[in-house]
């Protein structure tokens, strides 16, 4: 899945945390995806967020496919959270919407 396909799928499946802005930062050339639950939209723009989740593109792909658990990734240091941790805890629900 490309990043643009991810953005489209997240938008189509309403994969955001209601009322919150969560940025997923893939680092490097992959950039970011902004889940804007306040505006009910997903974009590949970089912007201010309540929570920033830093994870590599490869690890994100494994998480979205159900091959890597978000909590396990966090404990292994593959996923880092900046800001409001409660928003990051809702990541499993966002990932579940990607598998539907």
Task: Give an overview in words.
- With 100 residues, this protein is an alpha+beta fold.
- Helix content is 37%, strand content 26%.
- It has one domain: 2-Layer Sandwich (Nonspecific Lipid-transfer Protein, Chain A).
- It contains 5 helices and 5 strands, in the order αββββααβαα.
- A 5-stranded mixed sheet has the order 3-2-1-4-5.
- The longest helix is centred in the N-terminal third of the chain and has 10 residues, at 3-12.
Total helices: the number is 5
What percent of residues are in strands?
25-35%
Overall pLDDT: 91
Which blocks of ≥5 consecutive residues have pLDDT under 50?
Answer: none
Outline type: globular
What number of structural domains do the residues give? 1
Distance between the termini: 15 Å
Cα gyration radius (Å): 12 Å
The CATH topology, please?
A: Nonspecific Lipid-transfer Protein, Chain A
For the record, what is the CATH homologous superfamily label?
SCP2 sterol-binding domain
* Adjacency order of strands in the biggest sheet: 3-2-1-4-5
The run of helices and strands is HEEEEHHEHH
What is the CATH first-level class name?
Alpha Beta
CATH architecture: 2-Layer Sandwich
Number-wise, the strands total 5
Helical content stands at 25-40%
Structural class given helices, strands, pairing?
alpha+beta
Instruction: Give the biggest sheet.
Output: 5 strands, mixed
Tell me briefly what this model is:
It contains 5 helices and 5 strands; from the N terminus they run αββββααβαα. By secondary structure, it is α+β, with helices and mostly antiparallel strands.
